[in-house]
Design brief:
It is built from twelve helices and ten strands. It has 333 residues and is α/β, with parallel strands linked by helices. The chain has two domains: 162 residues, D-Maltodextrin-Binding Protein, domain 2; 111 residues, Periplasmic binding protein-like II (D-Maltodextrin-Binding Protein, domain 2).
């Protein structure tokens, strides 16, 4: 009888120990796609409401919520350009519930602008997918006596620092792209930074500044309204709504192209199966005909890249623009 009780006690203890190990394993087990997602997700937009980041973030969040069956909340976290919101996601729990709207601006250009950037674009983030790319258009005040980039560059070479160009701020994509073009063309123009594109357009329309390199969808209205004239676009091909405007490369002035892509990213240590789930759902969203049409009407080009192609594009742009921005010694302030 004593032996039986002793055997039962030993067996019971072993069983309890096994159960405890199972429970502990459950507590410390990494997040996986099984049962994911079971609560709301958050998409961080590192700029204020309005503009390219916000437009893309809200469209993708709305569609992902329907696809995942959970709310996807957009959180605007501006500050220090795009640093505050981007860094917040880099340091967020890697559980698939916090995503970042990433672009050339905060992931490819910032590393060259800030020597002590609090995040590493390639080490700290993993792309879920890139949704859309926008070209930039170089526009000139309508009474500027040049109708081609070649003529403009010829005048700038003969008259250093006589022409001016606007940007939405030091270190913005508008600034970096223009500065790179002037550098590669071997000319000097005077940079006039503004607090955002709206103020830059006011002075451009008023004839107080000569040129502005802005996102093509934003510049489109001014061009079609006849208030400004386009000289070149920065992408790899001409735009459907401006078929007569050449690319920079076509002009022969410089071998330079930039399309500002936008997509969703997660912290790098997010489990692979959670990333795969997000990637699969986002791919369906990006390929949906209504989403493609929305981006097209807004002047964007929908992207259809697999994970390997996406990583390669992000790495290429981070390395290229970091190097070029540092070579140009562009400062954010």
């Amino acid at each position: 009888m004593i032996r039986t009780r002793r055997n039962f006690s030993v067996a019971g203890l072993a069983s309890l120990a096994g159960l405890a190990l199972v429970l502990l394993a459950g507590v410390h087990a990494p997040v996986s796609a099984q049962g994911y997602p079971n609560k709301a997700l958050k998409v961080v937009v590192p700029q204020p409401p309005g503009g390219g980041f916000d437009f893309v973030g809200r469209l993708l969040s709305d569609r992902l919520a329907k696809s995942l069956g959970q709310p996807v909340v957009v959180e605007n976290r501006p500050g220090s350009g795009t640093l505050v919101g981007t860094d917040a996601v880099a340091k967020a729990a890697p559980d698939g519930y916090t995503l970042l709207v990433g672009s050339v601006s905060n992931l490819a250009i910032n590393p060259g602008l800030y020597r002590n950037l609090p995040y590493d674009s390639l080490r700290d983030f993993e792309p879920v997918g890139l949704a859309v790319a926008y070209s930039y258009t170089l526009v000139a005040r309508k009474d500027l006596p040049f109708n081609s980039l070649k003529d403009l560059i010829a005048h700038a070479k003969a008259n250093p620092r006589k022409l001016t160009y606007a940007s939405g701020g030091n270190g913005s994509g508008q600034h970096v792209l223009a500065a790179a073009l002037w550098h590669l063309a071997g000319v000097e123009l005077v940079h006039v930074p503004y607090r955002g594109a709206q103020a830059a357009y006011q002075d451009l329309l008023g004839g107080r500044v000569d040129l502005f390199f802005d996102l093509s969808p934003t510049a489109r209205g001014q061009i079609e309204g006849g208030t400004l004239k386009p000289l070149v676009v920065s992408g790899s091909g001409r735009l459907p709504f401006h078929p007569d405007v050449p690319t920079i490369t076509e002009t022969g002035v410089a071998a330079l192209e930039l399309e500002s892509w936008f997509g969703l990213f997660v912290p790098a240590k997010t489990p692979a199966d959670v990333q795969d789930r997000l990637r699969a759902e986002l791919s369906k969203v990006i390929a949906a005909p209504d989403v493609v049409d929305i981006f097209r009407k807004a002047g964007g080009k929908s992207l259809a890249l697999n994970a390997t192609e996406t990583r390669a594009l992000v790495r290429r742009d981070v390395e290229r623009w970091t190097r070029l921005t540092r070579d140009l010694d562009i400062k954010p302030e």
